[in-house]
Amino acid sequence: MIGFLRQITLLTAATTAFTMAEGYTQADRILDMQKMAQAMQDIQSGFFYNNVDIVKAGTKVLKDTIVNVRPIDAEVNNKDIYEKWLNNDLKMTRKIQKKIKNKATDIEERFSDGDAVQALQAYSKIAGQCMKCHVRLRKW
Ligand code: HEC
After folding, report:
1. How far is the CA of 34 from the centre of ligand 1 (A)?
2. From what superkingdom does this record's organism come (predicted)?
3. Per residue in 64-102, pLDDT tens?
4. Which of 7, 75, 77, 114 sits most deeply, having the most CB atoms within 10 A of its CB?
5. What's the pLDDT at 73?
6. Which residues have CB under 8 Å from 28's CB, separation 6+?
7. How far is 140 from 125, CA to CA, in rounded Å?
8. Which atom of ligand 1 is nearest to the CA of 69?
9. For atom 24 of ligand 1, which residue has the closest CA?
10. pLDDT score for 97
């Protein structure tokens, strides 16, 4: 009985892992992008209204969302042709994700310390990372 339950658990875990690896659609990514754009606006409002709670709500959404961003299924399934390109894409995406998370933490810390200038600098570095992907990877 224990063995049987264990098997069910493993099966469920495997199914979950599969579901997470698959199923990132263009619609999902657009939604993530819109969430991040809203988060950036919220952070900016927080700066102007001098409201650390609004700033932190924005950085939280940003940090939680940027980790989802990746090539969509249609791009992954094209890997024969785009393999090399995809590798670069993933490597660059991971770097950008790390930078955005770090800079979001900088914003929280600096703004909480009353250092609005440094917080704004971290903010513009994040905007730079967004544009880096849009311009360099996506040729926008
Ligand atoms: C790793 C690459 C990458 C990063 C990083 C990235 N984007 Fe995007 N962004 C995209 C892609 C790709 C699209 C096009 C969405 C699609 O059609 O799949 C997009 C589209 C958008 C859109 C348009 C969404 C719409 O409604 O059509 C907005 C707004 C946006 N991004 C905001 C941001 C913001 C803000 C950040 C940074 C916090 C960011 N992006 C970081 C790749 C990226």
Report:
1. 8
2. Bacteria
3. 999 999 888 877 777 666 666 666 678 889 999 999 999
4. 75
5. 84
6. 68, 72
7. 19
8. 1
9. 30
10. 97
Tokens of residue 44, six digits: 């900016």
d(CA 109, CA 103): 10
* Atom from ligand 1 closest to the CA of residue 37: 35
For the chain, list residues with pLDDT below 50: 1, 4-5, 7-20
| CATH number, domain 24-137, options 3.30.420, 1.10.3470, 1.20.120, 1.10.10 | 1.20.120
Kindly state if the Cβ of 138 falls inside 6 Å of ligand 1: yes
Residue identified by tokens 């991971």 is 94
33 lines ligand 1 (CB under 6 A): yes
Is ligand 1 within 6 A of the CB of residue 120? no
